[in-house]
Design a protein that fits this description.
54 residues, mainly alpha, 3 helices
Length: 54
């Protein structure tokens, strides 16, 4: 992780980051048709998606 990601986690708290990740996954799984599937990240730059981006 980059330092800005670590700082964001420290500011927001791990519980908030986990909740964001759950919401991102639920939103992505709930869609029957995903526009641009595989071509874009839902929330670019969010620490919970860091592994997907790198």
């Amino acid at each position: 992780m980059k330092q800005k990601d670590i700082d964001y986690i420290n500011e927001e708290g791990l519980d908030t980051i986990r909740q964001h990740a759950k919401e991102f996954i639920a939103k992505r799984e709930a869609l029957a048709y995903i526009a641009n599937d595989g071509k874009q990240t839902l929330i670019r730059g969010h620490p919970s998606l860091g592994v997907e981006e790198e």
